[in-house]
Amino acid sequence: AKACGRDRSERFDEAMRAEATRLLDLEADLRRGILQDAFEPYFQPIVRLSDGAVIGHEALLRWRHELHGILPPADFIGVGEDSGLIEQVDWLMYRKVIGMMTKLDAPGYVSINVSPRHFRSDDFVDRLMLLVDCAGADPSRLRIEITEVALLDDAPRALRMLSLLRERGVLVLLDDFGTGFSALSYLHRFPIRALKIDQSFVHGLGSDLHAESLALVRAILALASTLGIDTIAEGVETQAQRDMLDELGCQYGQGYLYGRPAPI
Ligand code: C2E
Ligand code: CA
Ligand code: CA
Ligand code: CA
User: Fold this and answer.
1) Domain EAL: where (predicted)?
2) DSSP state letter for 236
3) Which residues contact 19 (CB under 8 A, 6 or more apart)?
4) Whose CA is nearest to atom 11 of ligand 1?
5) Which ligand ends up closest to the CA of 77?
6) What tens digit of pLDDT does each residue of 82-133 get?
7) Total-model pTM
8) Which residue of 202, 240, 253, 261 has the lowest C-beta tally within 10 Å?
């Protein structure tokens, strides 16, 4: 039994070591990726549900890894956040997206994902607007996507930042809505252009979770309508989901039904 115990703990140590090495490798890789400027945006269309017209695109981060090919954020965002490297990656990404805005002849706006971390830094808005100015981009064609966490963290600061952005012409979309501890009680105080209904609710429509999902989507749509905020359904994959959302009064949608994220 003693030997057994030792075996187990040795195996455990080994697994820990392997995991630590993997993470270290990934962090070193990420640093190399930053030096090589190996990050690029993929774009996914956002459409009006009534007629399918494209009203904008969301820019989604991809890493062109020298060995592993194109990697989605899920593969590296954890390490990126723990090491703080994600901020550098994000700025490289934002620069690229904003630089492309003047060349893109796609209709509508381009939205970028902004993590709550950026909302803790005072110069975020200035830095972003500097990129916009330098690229000669139209700020009214840029939108930022933030989650409720960014609002709740430090509400007065978030309000200041969002107001500043709006003054500069950049509108804000509230991402993954319904998944966090909702900022319901003060949602009306923030200048928010649209709520993005989290894809978990959209996927629930027509599934085993239909009743609950329907109730939640209805509640979110009612809330948005009361506040005069637009709604974008995320993760629309089927015509049936599109039809239900349209019928419920959701204006916009995004998902594989309309197009997967793709390079420019
Ligand atoms: P998100 O902002 O909620 O983005 C939507 C995710 O859903 C994207 O995953 C997109 O590819 C995926 N998606 C779109 N339509 C469908 C669909 O019909 N079905 C399904 N199953 N999925 C769909 P992606 O590109 O892997 O991004 C994952 C997350 O990474 C994003 O979630 C966002 O939180 C984060 N992210 C993306 N770009 C950036 C960035 O530039 N900076 C930072 N910090 N985070 C980013
Ligand atoms: Ca998003
Ligand atoms: Ca989302
Ligand atoms: Ca998300």
Assistant:
1) 23-264
2) -
3) none
4) 261
5) 1
6) 999 999 999 999 999 999 999 888 889 999 999 988 888 889 999 999 999 9
7) 0.92
8) 240
* Closest residue by Cα to residue 204 from 194, 195, 217, 223: 217
Determine which residue's CA is closest to atom 27 belonging to ligand 1: 73
The candidate with the shortest Cα–Cα distance to 99, out of 141, 61, 137, is: 137
111 Cα to the center of ligand 3, angstroms: 12
Q: How far apart are CA 76 and CA 16, in angstroms?
A: 19
Q: 83 is written with which tokens?
A: 């090491």
Q: For residue 41, give the ligand 1 atom closest to its CA.
A: 41
At 139-186, the pLDDT tens digits run 999 999 999 988 888 889 999 999 999 999 999 999 999 887 666 777
ipTM confidence score: 0.97
Q: 47 near 62, Cβ under 8 Å?
A: no
